[in-house]
Amino acid sequence: MLLFSLFVVLSPSARTNPNVVLFLLADDCDDPLVSALPQASFSSSSELSSSHGPGFARLNRRDGAGGWSPLVSNKYQWLQIDLGERMEVTAVATQGGYGSSNWVTSYLLMFSDSGWNWKQYRQEDSIWGFSGNANADSVVYYRLQPSIKARFLRFLPLEWNPKGRIGMRIEVFGCAYRSEVVDLDGKSSLLYRFDQKSLSPIKDIISLKFKTLQSDGILLHREGPNGDHITLQLRRGRLFLLINSGEAKLPSTSTLVNLTLGSLLDDQHWHSVLIQRLGKQVNFTVDEHRHHFHAQGEFNFVNLDYEISFGGIPAPGKSVSFPHRNFHGCLENLYYNGVDIIDLAKQQKPQIIAMGNVSFSCSQPQSMPVTFLSSRSYLALPDFSGEEEVSATFQFRTWNKAGLLLFSELQLVSGGILLFLSDGKLKLNLYQPGKLPSDITAGVGLNDGQWHSVSLSAKKNHLSVAVDGQLASAAPPLGPEQIYSDGTYYFGGCPDKSFGSKCKSPLGGFQGCMRLISIGGRVVDLISVQQGSLGNFSDLQIDSCGISDRCSPNYCEHGGECSQSWSAFHCNCTNTGYRGATCHNSIYEQSCEAYKHRGNTSGFYYIDSDGSGPLEPFLLYCNMTETTWTIIQHNGSELTRVRNTNPENPYAGFFEYVASMEQLQVTINRAEHCEQEFTYYCKKSRLVNKQDGTPLSWWVGRTNETQTYWGGSSPDLQKCTCGLEGNCIDSQYYCNCDADRNEWTNDTGLLSYKEHLPVTKIVITDTGRLHSEAAYKLGPLLCRGDRSFWNSASFDTEASYLHFPTFHGELSADVSFFFKTTASSGVFLENLGITDFIRIELRSPTVVTFSFDVGNGPFEISVQSPNHFNDNQWHHVRIERNMKEATLQVDQLTPKTQPAPADGHVLLQLNSQLFVGGTATRQRGFLGCIRSLQLNGMTLDLEERAQVTPEVQPGCRGHCSSYGKLCRNGGKCRERPIGFFCDCTFSAYTGPFCSNEISAYFGSGSSVIYNFQENYLLSKNSSSHAASFHGDMKLSREMIKFSFRTTRTPSLLLFVSSFYKEYLSVIIAKMVRSLQIRYKLNRYQDPDVVNFDFKNMADGQLHHIVINREEGVVFIEIDNNTRRQVHLSSGTEFSAVKSLVLGRILACGPRGVGKCIPLTMMSHVKLFIWQPILLLLAHITFPLCRALTADHSGTIDDKEPLANAIKSDSAVIGGLIAVVIFILLCITAIAVRIYQQKRLYKRSEAKRSENVESAEAVLKSELNIQNAVNENQKEYFF
């Protein structure tokens, strides 16, 4: 082992402090590999002088000019190292030229086995470049993870000191690499036959490496007699692992497991494969990417023969149902369950049969690709064939749908030939000025990343093109014109016009790879091109194909469909239920509580219980009352009767829910409380064996544990409800059923222990005796509230904070929370790495900022609001960072986005604690409240941590300041310890936000009359305090609001009278069908009459009336637009208000048509007037609207409008109620809602199964004939 030290200056992109000096202790594979190499092992693209040659590029050496420098400093220079044989390289280090201003600030690292066909080393699958040096002598060290196994390394400078030139000294660290290799030619294979005694039928471990230029081939295959097989197949450059089990019972009709990994694996570079199968668990790894699979059903046994083939399916009689071809390429270090297959083949062991031409060294096909890096790239080549024609062949691969492939200008006639991609199709275009272009279209979907061959021929007056060997429809003869090339072919693009070229590129340049380029039948020597002796080029990378599959692995989450171009990928989130650049953010809320506080009413909603997590959304019912209930149905809501069971032949009933168990678990954990009603009937069927105490019936919850407690009992007591309440029918037992009586009884109640819910199974074993029977019915899972939604903490000082474990959001991260504050600034959240970090803060009263660094340097995104955020109102913040972009949204303001660099670092690497409400330095902390903090869909329990943290308080009050606006129509927001609710007591509406209007229907002749106090004359001598108090009351103001619709006249809408013959009336006149309001506030004067005859008020439409009186001034508003102010002459006060009448008709005929009054409200005048009414409401029941015939105290003189205006026998009357009547209607509306909900569920259950009603009817019939039923039974059965 070698011990050495290096002074290392690490750049910011190295994800650590840029000025740290490290002492490195070498491990078993950290030997310096370059220092001992001979001069001949170093080569370069060029050298400035003999003293700047590549042999002087050893680290820390000062000989020569102190390092390598090329003749010209540009991005086409390179320094190459030949390690002599394949080595494992674990680290690299660089310096600049000694004592000079020459150093490289960034570079690419490439590797190869043969010195041809180079491959770029990438960090994190996306970083192509390494940051270099900042001066000439400091050493920058990079550990390579994963390591490189190669013979040749090449350093390509990208950027250098602008005041100097390229200068490098390098070192490479690693160790020797040993391997066994076999070369298969596409017709050969290896067959291994093993000892069946040494093999486990449920376990396989296979590891290998391969490299090939072919996109298809069988790598391994093992088959059984019944069609079972395990196959590893290369298809279109991707690896497919196929496992078929004849014993598997999968949900689909197919028993085939198909796992796919990798892409572009036909690049003639080594790729590693590991397959681990243990029973139902399968781990499939290709290079650094892993797919874990857990099979369903009886998958653990695969019936296979005792032989396995590698490279093909050579055994006679073997047949598979999928197309295949043998593998053509090299295999390395091939192990099957620990057996070295290649070593056995080399030793010609009898267990191995080599079929075909098998060699034990890997051939190196000479294929030199070229990469067109940008839309400005081009390769210009002369026509050195000497033929008077246009003829070219090549292969290409790309992800782009459009781009120029080839242009050739024509001689003799002006014009040219264009060969280009358009919408993934190949188009050949011959254009000549003044003539219509001649087009040929060939191929489809050619932007799939696969290699495609193209052959172009244009000779004299004939033009043709072939794609992948398929000749396209040839263009018709072109006439007398002869086609001759002008001598230059432009591949991939056109040079700048300043070069004088007539090259045309209508759809832009080509980005991708080409290889096997030939002109006039002669292969182009790309090395000569690279050295500048043939043609010219721009922005190319010769002898390497730099294509990258940005959709493998697929970073589109939740089933998003990935598509890509050369430099970017795109996620199509349609029909996934998610949105965002990577389909990370759910479009659904996480709970019914969250929907409620968006103002939604009761109904079915999709819930995504884990937010951006892996669980899918599911549909459930949200019952939005003052308390929000989540209702999750299952398939066992009908009554099920059970007979003829015993412990040897038990009955098992299973319950399947509309959500998976994982979804249910998250939903239950978020809820404040959950319950499930279990209705259990029994007749001579015990729950527990009284002799030994063993359970005879039990149920199973989501923990998959047997539970023997029943409704109303806690798990530890193992009792039923009657056992807890002490009212079991037999006091010897804790459950009614254990009395073992020959009559129906029950042990029924609510199961509310959250950790055991929901019920997934019930087992009954004691119904095998004569007359023994049981019946059960399980209600839906009911959960209320959302603990996460209101989970909050208050931060009292700038130095206070909460800390949590490190946030792990390497590839995608989202953070959301609510905050409210009066402070002008403060940090909400911070998590640090070595250089990476995330921070969310209130930068100023109007700016929220998200700062982060994932290794590409710090970025900031800010959202600025026209209003202040420090207004002590709740504000919602959501940030998301993924492979494509970072976004910040605050409330409903326009989101701000920061795109990610196309080839930058992507992994967010944090290692410190997560600080909430402050920072690690205890400075710039947040003052205020933070609520519902979620990271990647998981809620942090702020309240639990705040309880043990100084200067931080659990919870936060003041929700009404933000949510009070949800309470409508006069509803008042009331604070709760957790959340708030809308108090609809003084509103004519009901519902969670006082938005459901209360209405009453008045039929012909029906009315509601309410007496405010007793007859004043009779009560004057009474000792009643209330009567004497109200008798002298004077009412100087009132406000009345109501809405109505009717088609009948005349109609009384409202009549308020006093004991002194004073009154207020609102009527619809018969003849003109207009509204008339009369005030009589003095019995000795005529009433004030206000007529609104501008429109028909009995037109069946909804009309709104507002009457507001302040002493002698009345303000009247109709339908929110017509307004009138009236000064009364009859008086200014109501004296001793007696009663309020809605809809009473003096003369009623036999016919009548009803009228609906949607809402009515009369505001309270003084509290002591309405207080006795509130006490009365609890005793009022249905029907609300009924005909009243009782004669009430007081008389109506002949001048009152009732006698003069209402004489129709079919009047339809509606009206309006004082505050009191509205409370009454509110109560009854709630009752109606509950009644309707019950009917809704009963109807839905009836639709699911008609035999439910018959089963319950039979059971009730049996119960009715029992001689004696106790009170407890009656409560459950009827």
Automatic annotation (TrEMBL):
Name the record gives this protein: Contactin associated protein family member 4
BP term (GO), one: cell adhesion
Topology class, membrane: Single-pass type I membrane protein
GO cellular component: membrane
Subcellular location: Membrane
Segments traversing the membrane: 1167-1190, 1210-1235
Protein family per UniProt: Belongs to the neurexin family.
Record bears the keyword Signal: yes
Organism classification: Eukaryota, Metazoa, Chordata, Craniata, Vertebrata
Pfam families in UniProt: F5_F8_type_C, Laminin_G_2
